[in-house]
Amino acid sequence: KVHFMGPLADFTGEKEATIELPEGSKLRDLLKRIDERFGKKLPEMFYANGQYKMLLLMLNLRDIHPEKDVERPLADGDSLHVIPPVGGG
Predict the structure, then answer these.
(1) pLDDT in the model for residue 88
(2) For the chain, which domains are there?
């Protein structure tokens, strides 16, 4: 599952999305599917040209880096959280 946190849920129209991938898929496959389904819905300040900007990505609640971890294998039941920056004071 992919979880869109905060205002990202408003942009995508979904707080949680189930994305089916074949066995043996890697993080790159999931990110490509997210791009195909939601890329045009996300503002350019967060996502443009296949690049995540100012977003925290967590796979199974562990921080990941989309550029460095693209070959990370995925398993059934994995969960990706897409989290926008939080500000305040």
Answers:
(1) 61
(2) 2-83 (3.10.20.30)
Pairing of strands 51-52, 56-59: unpaired
Helix, strand, coil in percent for the chain, rounding step 5: 25, 25, 50
pTM of the model: 0.87
CA distances to 30, 63, 87, 89 from 2, in Å: 9, 14, 23, 29
Q: How far apart are CA 61 and CA 70, in angstroms?
A: 17
What integer pLDDT is reported at residue 54 of this predicted model? 81
Q: Of 14, 5, 15, nearest to 85 (Cα)?
A: 5
Average of per-residue pLDDT values in the chain = 90
What CA–CA distances, in Å, run from 11 to 15, 23, 34, 39? 10, 29, 13, 10
E strand or H helix at 14: none
